[in-house]
Amino acid sequence: MSLCPRPLLRARLSTGLNAYVPQHRQSPSHWYRQTAHISPARPFTNNATSSNPSLDSTDDDSADSPSFAADSTVTRTPSDRPRDDQDSGFQEPVFSTSSEGHAGSSGTSQGMPSEVGIPRPRRQNSTSLRTFQEEDPNPKFFYADRSMANGEILYRFRTRRVSQETYGLERSIRSKSMHYPQENTRLWRLNYSALYRATLYKVQPPMVPPFLRPTIEDLQLFEKIKTDCQGSFREAWELLDVRSRADHWMRLSLYLLQNSPELSLEFLLVTTQTEAEKPLFVMVADCCLYLEAMYGPRLEDWQKDGHTYESVLTTCLGPENWPVAYLPQKGTRLYLKKCGKANLYETWELVRQRQNHLSPETCLCFMRLFTEYEDADNALEALYLARKVATSFFTFDSVGVMRHCCKLLQLDSVVDTEDGRNFYILPKLLRMGIRPDRDMMNVVLANGFKTGDPQVGLDMYKYMKSQALEPDSYTYLALLSNAVSCGDRENVELLAQEIRSRNLDHNPWIASKMFHAYFTFNVKGLPPDADRDAIFYSLLDMYNQLHDITPLKELSIIPAEYTPRTRSQGSPPTIISLYLIIATYLRCQKRIHHAQRVFTRFKQLVHQGHPSIAPLTSTDHTYNEFLIAFRKHPSGLREAVHLVEDMLQSANEGQKLKDGDFLRVKPSIRTWTILMSAFSFNKQPHAAEKVREMMEKHGVGYSHVTWNTVINTYANAQNITDVVNSIKKMESQGYSMDSYTIKSFRYLQDPERLWVAVEELDNATETPECETVTSLDQEVPEEYDLDDDEYLLEQGLRRLSGLKKSSH
Q1: Spatial distance between the Cα atoms of 666 and 653, rounded to a whole number of angstroms
Q2: Whose CA is closest to 80, among 174, 186, 168, 153?
Q3: What CA–CA distance (Å, rounded) separates 25 from 86?
């Protein structure tokens, strides 16, 4: 007989044996003898007062770590060296000290989520739980673990003291659970694992042993599940005796998982919500993990009698049924991902109060969720608990732990302490023994620049160099962002040279930031005598080095016959790069008809769902650049009104782009402010007043720039009373006068009247508001003699006012 390892491995896996075979036992018939050694199922016994062996021996993927520090730990092993194949992430260890690995003990397989993994056959290990007598004043959970690593057997003996309340809760949960002989539970999970693999790899599942095959009574119950699960089946289930329910549950659960996942959801809901004995939590968790891994997207829209897919999972996996001593961790993490914020916090308090068994991976799951909810304190507490229960199979310098810490550090801020100003989260991580790597230091570097003191970030950068941490693209992105915000052009040039020397200039984020730096230093505040064509084509050369110029030709920004001076890589442009090149073009040309032509083409491409142009509508930046271009000439005011009208109508109707990834943005405060300033710039205060009225109608608040624009409009119209009222309202909203506000006063022909009006308003005990607002529904005053163009503009503003208020 051939001794080829691959057929032998397949034979061992198909029969539920461990893939590892000691050298002295690698005989062709060894795997056959192992299968024959499995004893038949023992008679059913239900002893609610004794320890449940099936619950003890089939619990968790990392069950060798109790939830809190053990009173004593003794390890007897031929060798204490770590496994050679130990992963540095959060993946489940291959040789775990529990048997939940049947439901998937490794998250490294392709196509599977890391929390679920691929089921494995039972390994040559065992984990038993024994407790001292109930009358002991200080009860203990005693763990005797045996596992195999590198062909060597490891023995671990652990004890964990608990309170009498916790001990009683454990006994109570066991007494309310269905009890099975250990062999029955083990064989159920082996067949569950075989079904899992068969569904995953789309092969024919193996034959189920006789005691797990559906009987006539099972099929009768199955018919009731199909017709009325919540009614007739629930009534029939409640009438069954304890032993019958336990036997039917084992057979029906596998049968429904294989044939009808929708009915399996209803079956789990009914059987876990009964007043009688409930199925073992570890078996319910296996079923839920199977449904999530195999049919999760398909069941997302499932609804029945007010229940949804997520509500069924959270009900079946609720923490009120969690065992205290040995808690299946994969099912626990599935519940945490589905339960929502309120239930997450309730569960966190419950497991700490009950002292439930938690693995380091589950503690990190709590940490990740708390980080998403921006709760740094509870995230740090979860990380501390993970460190407390960590075992030799779990290292805190792994990539996964560092990624969790990186996300947590993004919430860091600077606080005043007794020792001076310092970060809030970083010192706590250092005290836990976390040694920052380059990724963590990059986040600290960015946080240092966010403090408002650039020197803090630069000190962090020097520290990284002293620790031999080579900068990467994230490091240079933080340095570039700080240099651009500080206006340090020389530093930007030095960073650009260093980036090119490291061949990082083709990174899309770095390239976008370089684009932004060039736009900030050369396009913003463009002087009148600047060579606009040279500036535009210089940025266009930078664009051509990375992106395809086809979208620019389709926008009619550059001629169709244009040939780039540098070779293009042909990659589609990013949103930032495309926005910056459009903004540069609009600011470097002076003729209004160019902006009108490009905007007309822009609307056409957006309507067609262009893959590069259409995503620009997800923000207001491109629209605002067109408004700034239209503001330069009176003939562009009508286009400005149409632009805002189009944004409002698209946002109200909820139109999506063809790819479904972006929604049309509605006008922002900046958009309305630019529109108002356009009318003020072109000496049309009546139209500017109507824009202000529309902002109030659509519930748009005022920014500091908006108030300055309003004051500027009134100052141009010599309306001193409204200037004073606007200043008072601006100050009441927390804004104060700045240089732009004072600059507006130069338009007043009699500035002394302004200060007299301010003094009169301050001295008045009760001053009615003197705000003069022209209603959009009123007729135009006689002093506004509108010509044809202004009349059309007036009609456009009326259409804007007629649009329904945007939903907020």
Answers
A1: 11
A2: 153
A3: 25
Q: Is 150 left (phi over 0), alpha (psi -120 to 50) or beta?
A: left
Contact 57, 186 (CB under 8 A): yes
Residue pair 434/409 in contact (Cβ under 8 Å)? The answer is no
Q: Do 658 and 609 contact (CB within 8 A), yes or no?
A: yes
Average pLDDT, rounded, for the chain: 76
Residue 143 DSSP SS3 = strand
Distance CA 339, CA 345 (A): 10
Token duo for residue 129: 């739980």
Cα separation, 120 vs 139, whole angstroms: 34
Distance CA 596, CA 619 (A): 20
Contact 398, 92 (CB under 8 A): no
Joined together, the tokens standing for residue 602 give 């822009």
- H runs (alpha helix) in 103-177: 164-175
DSSP, residue by residue, 276-317: SPBPPHHHHHHHHHHHHHHHHHHHTT-EETTEEHHHHHHHHT
**Please, which residues have CB within 8 angstroms of residue 748's CB and are 6 or more apart in sequence?**
715, 718, 720, 723, 754
Distance CA 552, CA 578 (A): 8
* 559-613 per-position pLDDT tens digit: 777 777 665 556 788 888 899 999 999 999 888 889 999 999 999 998 888 889 9
Q: CB 668: neighbour CB atoms within 10 A?
A: 17
Beta bridge partner(s), residue 75: 156
CB 632 within 8 A of CB 588: no
DSSP 25: G
Amino acid identity, position 511: A
Whole-angstrom Cα distance, residue 308 to residue 303? 5
Mean pLDDT of 132-160: 59
d(CA 681, CA 634): 9
CA distance 247 to 188: 11
Rounded to whole angstroms, the maximal C-alpha distance in the chain is 110
**Cα four-point dihedral sign 589, 591, 594, 595:** positive
Query: Residues 480, 513: contact at Cβ < 8 Å?
Result: yes
Of the candidates 489, 512, 510, 509, the residue with the CA atom closest to the CA atom of residue 501: 510
CB 292 within 8 A of CB 196: no
d(CA 614, CA 604): 10
> Partners of 73 in the beta sheet?
158
DSSP state of 527: -
DSSP class of residue 38 equals P
Alpha-carbon gap, residue 216 to 222, rounded angstroms? 10
DSSP summary character for residue 735: -
Distance from CA of residue 340 to its chain's centroid?
13
Cβ atoms of 314 and 339 closer than 8 Å = yes
Tokens linked to 454: 């650039």
Tell me how far apart the alpha carbons of residues 129 and 256 are, in angstroms, rounded to a whole number. Answer: 31
Which SS3 state, helix, strand or coil, does residue 388 take? Answer: helix
What are residue 344's phi and psi, to 5 degrees?
-60, -45
Tens digit of pLDDT for each residue in 695-724?
888 888 888 898 988 888 888 878 888 888
Tokens of 245: 């329910």
Rounded to 5°, angle at Cα 424 from 406 and 68? 70
Buried b (16+ CB within 10 A) or exposed e, 100-125: bbbbbbbbeeeeeebbbbbbbbbbeb
Sort 481 into a burial class: Cβ within 10 Å, 0-12 / 13-18 / 19+.
middle
Residue 77 has pLDDT above 70, yes or no: no
- Cβ pair 289, 334 in contact under 8 A: yes
DSSP state for residue 556 in the 8-state scheme = T
Phi, psi of 415, deg, nearest 5:
-130, 160
What is the pLDDT at residue 493? Answer: 92
Q: Say if CB 155 and CB 146 are below 8 A apart.
A: yes
Tokens for 801, please give them.
């006012």
Question: Which 8-state DSSP code applies to residue 778?
Answer: S
The pair of three-digit structure tokens given for residue 352, joined into one six-digit string: 């700490």
β-bridge pairing 140-149 and 126-131: antiparallel
What is the distance between the alpha carbons of residues 221 and 202, in angstroms, rounded to a whole number?
28
